Amino acid sequence: MTEEERKKYYKVITQNWLAFNEFLKHGDFSDDIECEMSEVIHKIYESNGKTSFAKSICLAILDEIERLCKEKRGK
């Protein structure tokens, strides 16, 4: 695998981590922030060429955000 190919994986992972970390730091688990984060993660997916790897990582992040929001809201 070339350096360029590895960087594509790195980019997907770091962009998702940065978005998820901002979500955690914000501490808002409302429906509004859940929708907002969904849009952010979708943009990350699109900006990374809609690859299957990007899709898997993005869906994992969205699933965790949804789980945390439901848990914090007591649902």
TrEMBL record:
Stated name of the protein: Uncharacterized protein
Per the UniProt record, the source organism is [Ruminococcus] lactaris
